[in-house]
Structure formats: C-alpha cells, structure tokens
Design goal:
single chain, mainly alpha, DUF6256 family protein
C-alpha cells in the first residue's frame, strides 16, 4: 500500500512539474481549434484503450486464467464504448462552442438587454 501511495504521489509531482514547465512556453498556433481538439481527444482515447486492454489482458491471462471469447468480447465491447463516448464528446463540444459563439447582446422580450 505504501509503494502504491508513493507511486501515485510521485506521478502527481511529476505532472505538476511538467505543467509548470509547459506554462512557460508559448502555445503553438498549429494545435488550436477543432483539428487540435480532435487530435488530442482521439489520441487520448487510443492511448486509454491500449492501456485498458493491456490491463485486461494482463489480469485475465496472468491472474484469472480466463481467455478466449471473454477477451474477444472485452476488446470489442471497450472499442464500442470508446467509439460511442467519442461521438458524444465531440457532439457536446460542438454544441458548447456553438452556444458560446452566439451573440450575447440580444434584446429580451421585456425590452431590456439580456
């Protein structure tokens, strides 16, 4: 338990150090906007899927000794889940950007601005 705690705290400290170092650099303009968002989200999803599948295979092959159809189902089920969540996330991001981009100076029905 102590080793797990120290690993987690070490990774958090490393993440904070990386964040401090990255804030000093200017953000490149080529990674902004929708293409940058889509690239980051898809990269995160693929990396998360690979990590999840390595944990699933490692546990169910190495510890539980379950394989075959279960692992095939785990691969396809997790891929479907990530595909659905990516579609929902990108749709929600598009709607949020569209909502924020609408003009805010509209006149309300009561005659005031709002």
């Amino acid at each position: 338990m102590l080793v797990g705690y120290l690993l987690v705290m070490g990774y958090l400290a490393l993440g904070l150090r990386i964040l401090r170092r990255d804030t000093a650099r200017p953000v490149p303009t080529g990674k902004r906007g929708w293409p940058g968002l889509i690239r980051q989200v898809v990269g995160t999803a693929v990396g998360g899927y690979v990590l999840l599948m390595s944990v699933v295979v490692g546990y169910y092959q190495g510890v539980a000794r379950v394989g075959g159809h279960f692992l095939a189902s785990a691969f396809t089920g997790c891929a479907l889940l990530i595909g659905v969540t990516l579609a929902v996330l990108l749709t929600a991001s598009w709607l949020a950007e569209r909502w924020h981009a609408r003009p805010s100076g509209r006149v309300s029905r009561r005659g005031g601005r709002g």
